[in-house]
Write a structure and sequence with these properties.
Blueprint lengths: L11 H29 L5 H26 L20 E2 L6 E2 L4 E3 L4 E3 L4 E3 L4 E3 L4 H46 L4 H4 L11 H9 L3 H4 L20
Antiparallel strand pairs: 1-2, 3-4, 5-6
């Protein structure tokens, strides 16, 4: 395995993509292990231990294959043997670097060299994907997909639980006030002087005359009832 002499990205867009992956992965992993995982599985439980081990396995393969894809030199440099009649065997001469290269080897203007069995230039790795690092690139995106799916499921449960708890707390706080015909500001005093005796009438003041349909869509018109003792709306 030959290592590239210059492993750093060459374009600004490559640097941005490279940093996006390089910086986000450790932060996401730490957040998942410290915040999300203990929230869903109690520390010390079998599922906590199993999921933690799976996460370490995934992050190891994601970062390992990512690094290998970047570091391995997949250019035609160091190619040992050129056939006696290379052009009859499908070889061609690169007009950029003037080297005789095998079939499916093309020059990359970003890497500034011919890539053996060139697939494409990846902005996230900042290098070309070719013969010697194609394996690491495919394994990188495969394990990244598995890890992202794993994280998506756990984060969905985590956020759904947090949002559910938060929304329940808000409903418990606001709904009794609405049913009594008051507003949160009046709650401090513990009195609702403008409320109606019937809770249905208090709901109509908030949701309008068509309150039975208002929950279907914010686009449905539901005319509000005037507070006849205080104001009139034209």
């Amino acid at each position: 395995m030959r290592i590239r002499k210059n492993v750093w990205p060459r374009r600004h867009v490559d640097w941005l993509c490279f940093l996006l992956i390089g910086i986000s992965m450790p932060f996401v992993f730490i957040f998942e292990m410290i915040v999300v995982l203990p929230f869903i599985h109690p520390p010390g439980s079998f599922l906590h231990t199993f999921t933690f081990a799976m996460a370490v396995f995934l992050i190891f393969n994601i970062t390992g294959n990512f690094a290998a894809c970047i570091m391995v030199d997949t250019s035609v440099d160091g190619l040992l043997k050129v056939p006696e009649k290379p052009f009859s065997a499908g070889w061609h001469k690169c007009v950029k670097c003037l080297k005789i290269v095998p079939p499916r080897s093309w020059h990359c203007k970003i890497c500034n060299c011919c890539i053996l069995k060139r697939d494409h230039h990846c902005p996230f790795t900042g290098c070309c994907v070719g013969y010697r690092n194609h394996r690491y690139f495919i394994m990188f995106i495969l394990f990244l997909f598995i890890g992202s799916t794993y994280a998506f499921i756990y984060n969905s449960v985590f956020l759904w639980t947090l949002k559910s708890v938060y929304s329940i707390v808000l409903l418990i706080y606001h709904l009794p006030v609405i049913l009594k015909g008051g507003v949160s500001y009046e709650r401090r005093k513990g009195a609702y002087p403008y409320g109606n005796d019937r809770w249905q009438a208090n709901l109509q003041e908030v949701f309008g005359k068509r309150m039975h349909l208002a929950w279907l869509s914010p686009l449905l018109r539901s005319e509000l009832i005037d507070s006849t003792d205080i104001w009139k709306i034209d």
